[in-house]
Predict the 3D structure of the following.
Amino acid sequence: PGDVTLAMHKQGAFPLAMTCVQKVKDGAKLRAVALGYYAFLWGKGIEFAKKEMVKKGGQIPPTINLTSLETTIDTLGPMAKQFGIGLRVASEQYKSCAIDYLELSLDYKNPAIAQIAATDPDAKQIFDMLQEAMGDKVSLAMGFSPDLAVFTFGPTAVDQLKKVVDGEKGMAGHAGLALT
């Protein structure tokens, strides 16, 4: 337990996908600690943001539920969707692995994005670069099985994590195979 391997690799046009695998003694316990830690950090970040907004004479609208990352995305998701931005936080079980992930997607054909791209050449260049590099989504996933902790980042982070769980060879699987 404690051995770690990290693979950084290109995934399609995405320049820097990552897969990190660590041997652990108790994946369920580590997951609980990790989720608790992320909730703590979220709370501190929101506290800081609220104080900074007050310093600048503003405030976060009370209709936005900032209790957790999940509630914030549930609140902001419909508004972001109008601008072609998809936000999703989810959890799923895959074999013996509990997977938690955050996904960001962009709909480049959304009228709001298309209008910005049509009127601002710099924005169009950024959108084109994003679309080429990440396609329509990028995600960050973490998975915990009884003896492994796996963290992945890239356009298909959840699928990459599942490949590690399955022991599949390939870019994502190399990190997992080193420890299995």
